[in-house]
Amino acid sequence: MEENTQQPQEGFFFVKSEHRLVKIELSKLLYVECVKDYLKLHLQDQRPVMTLMTMKTIAERLPEPQFMRIHRTYIVQTGKIDYVNKGSVSIAGNNLPISAGCRNDFFAYIDKLTLL
User: What's the burial of 26, exposed, middle or buried (CB within 10 Å: 0-12/13-18/19+)?
Assistant: First the structure.
């Protein structure tokens, strides 16, 4: 069976979590955190959803540049970033690190949105 690598067209997708399918609305997805073999989907005004999936799989499904990988363990929704420091971003009061490998692409994107 061929894996579906299309990006969500409806503004949401479903993930398996705790023996059920949970709807994840893109507009409410703040960031994705890798925790061992699981992903923790941090949502606005909801508790996080845990699912067994790889970062590579979800990165292929999330629309760019709305979602960007900033670290091997984090993908963030760029529109939900409160502020950016030299080595981290803040989303909903959580400071998330920016890795050296992701720094150039991330800051190139941020520079396009920066008014000086």
Answer: middle
**Tokens 């008014």, residue?**
115
The three-class DSSP label of residue 49 is strand
User: Which two three-digit tokens encode residue 1?
Assistant: 């069976």
Are the C-beta atoms of 32 and 42 separated by less than 8 Å?
yes
Residue 9 per-residue DSSP state: S
Inform me whether the pLDDT recorded for 3 exceeds 50. Answer: no
As a whole number of angstroms, the distance between CA 112 and CA 22 comes to: 35
Domains delineated in the chain:
12-112 (2.40.50.1020)
Q: Is 105 exposed, middle or buried (0-12, 13-18, 19+ CB in 10 A)?
A: middle
* pTM to 2 decimal places: 0.89
Question: pLDDT tens for residues 39-64?
Answer: 999 999 999 999 999 999 999 999 99
User: What pLDDT digit, counting tens, does each position of 5-16 carry?
Assistant: 555 667 999 999
**Which amino acid would we find at residue 80?**
K
Query: What's the one-letter identity of residue 74?
Result: Y
